Amino acid sequence: MPEMYFRVRWPDGEIQRCYSPSTVIADYFEPGAVYSVADFVARSRQALGIASARVRARYGVACAAAADQLIEIETTAAAFTGQPEAPVTVEALLPASGSRR
After folding, report:
1. Is the dihedral of CA 57, 27, 21, 12 positive or negative?
2. Which of 8, 15, 66, 78 could make a disulfide contact with 52, Cβ separation 3.0–4.6 Å?
């Protein structure tokens, strides 16, 4: 499966590199786009759920890394409870082979 990373900047300026086991993430996020925390989390849930299902269809087991990534996103987002409209910027979508940054 073609893995991808997506680099995001949270409302507090923290940068997080996120993992997807599938390029489906590119259907949900656009580089340079700004999403509210609530929208970013909802899009992440949907995209990572689809990515994990694609892994399951191919290998017979869901992707634990996608589930772990979603937990990280939800944990980070929890710091912005009460600020659901705070901005999350998707800085880049990166193929796994070129994702060192």
Report:
1. negative
2. 66
